[in-house]
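can u do me a favor
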């Protein structure tokens, strides 16, 4: 029995020694094969290094409304034109009717507009605020009379001889239309009128009704072109960033992602913005959409900042924040397909509406624009600590 126990102990010792010998024979550097770099995943939170906003000039003639008035730093005037008038005859009377969708801001004491002729040709898809202001489009004031206003519409009489001149002219070029405005600098309200582009099932389009002498019938003509010419008194400031439709306020952002390796895969990139809802116009109700493009110039040459319009993503603001997936853009920068010159944020309804949202800039440490990155690096052929 003792011999058996001794033999078992001897076998155990031999097995232990053999394992030690094997371990000692493990080649130097084997850990590089056993622990090889299988890639890595990481995330990081970044803040905008540069941001600003600016105003440009755009044509606003394709929307469902024409805005006239001055409220919360926004000023807008309306231009309207009636063509295809009746055959030459003697005009007895002519009246214009504009239909109201809503009134924004203070309750107006009067809805009687100031009316001017327009002295040059214009197209609703091309005319901009800057062009109108610098090109001398505003003509002589028009005396209007017999003004009727209610909660749904305003109606006023035009001088018969003015409309007569529109009808009698041998070409349409002398009828450039009318400019309407409420007395600046601050009426405290904006009237949102239906335009000629409003869907036909809406309340009513701008109309010119003409009555001829010795004629018991009237001729009603819907506006053939109208637009609003909007601008803002809001000067550049570093405290907030603006995105506005109509007045064409645009925001610029730059994040430095050049530290990412060219072989990195951007799994997710989320841009987050935080809004100051007290500065929204006309209010903070409803969803606000904006488009994000990448700027194409090495510097932001305001107000003619160039950007790549071939690719964009749409951001959505509802309430006080907006989070937008911009993975595609960041990945293009990492691979070198596009150069990183930053983003430009433009209102999705810039040509047709008049509203804005205001975001905190990089000056606000709690609510500054931020970029959350999730990325991965591929495995390499050697171990990296």
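np, heres the sequence
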């Amino acid at each position: 029995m003792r011999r058996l126990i001794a033999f078992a102990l001897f076998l155990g010792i031999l097995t232990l020694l053999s394992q030690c010998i094997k371990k000692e024979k493990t080649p130097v550097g084997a850990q590089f094969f056993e622990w090889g770099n299988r890639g890595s995943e990481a995330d990081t939170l970044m803040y905008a290094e540069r941001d600003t906003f600016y105003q440009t000039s755009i044509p606003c003639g394709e929307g469902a409304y024409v805005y006239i008035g001055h409220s919360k730093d926004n000023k807008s005037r309306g231009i309207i034109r009636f063509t295809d008038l009746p055959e030459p005859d003697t005009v007895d009377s002519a009246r214009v009717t504009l239909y109201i969708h809503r009134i924004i801001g203070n309750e107006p004491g009067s809805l009687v507009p100031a009316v001017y002729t327009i002295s040059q040709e214009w197209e609703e898809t091309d005319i901009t605020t800057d062009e109108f202001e610098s090109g001398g489009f505003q003509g002589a004031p028009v005396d209007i009379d017999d003004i009727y206003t209610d909660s749904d519409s305003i109606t006023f009489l035009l001088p018969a001889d003015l409309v007569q001149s529109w009808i009698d002219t041998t070409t349409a070029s002398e009828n450039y239309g009318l400019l309407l405005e409420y007395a600046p600098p601050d009426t405290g309200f904006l009237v949102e009128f239906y335009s000629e582009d409003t869907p036909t099932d809406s309340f009513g389009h701008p109309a010119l009704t003409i009555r001829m002498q010795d004629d018991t019938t009237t001729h009603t003509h819907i506006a053939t072109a109208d637009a609003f010419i909007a601008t803002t008194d809001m000067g550049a400031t570093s405290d907030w960033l603006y995105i506005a439709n109509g007045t064409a306020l645009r925001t610029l952002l730059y994040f430095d992602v050049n530290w990412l390796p060219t072989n990195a895969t951007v799994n997710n990139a989320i841009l987050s913005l935080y809004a100051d809802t007290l500065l929204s116009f006309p209010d903070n109700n409803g969803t606000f959409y904006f488009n994000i493009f990448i700027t194409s110039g090495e510097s932001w040459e305001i107000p003619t900042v160039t950007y790549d319009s071939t690719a964009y993503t749409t951001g959505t603001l509802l309430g006080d924040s907006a989070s937008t997936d911009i993975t595609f853009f960041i990945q293009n920068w990492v691979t070198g397909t596009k150069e990183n010159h930053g983003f430009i944020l433009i209102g999705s309804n810039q040509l047709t509406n008049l509203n804005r949202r205001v975001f905190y800039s990089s000056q606000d440490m709690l609510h500054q624009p931020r970029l959350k990155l999730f990325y991965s690096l591929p495995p390499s052929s050697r171990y990296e600590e």
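The mean pLDDT is 86. hope that helps!!
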